[in-house]
Amino acid sequence: MMYFIDEADMSKKSIAPGVDIAVAGGEKAQMSFVTLNPGGTVPMHNHPHEQMGVVLEGEFVMVIGDESRTIKPGDKYVIPGGVDHGVPEVIVKSVALDIFSPPREDYA
Question: What's the CA gap between 78 and 51, in Å, rounded?
Answer without folding.
Answer: 6
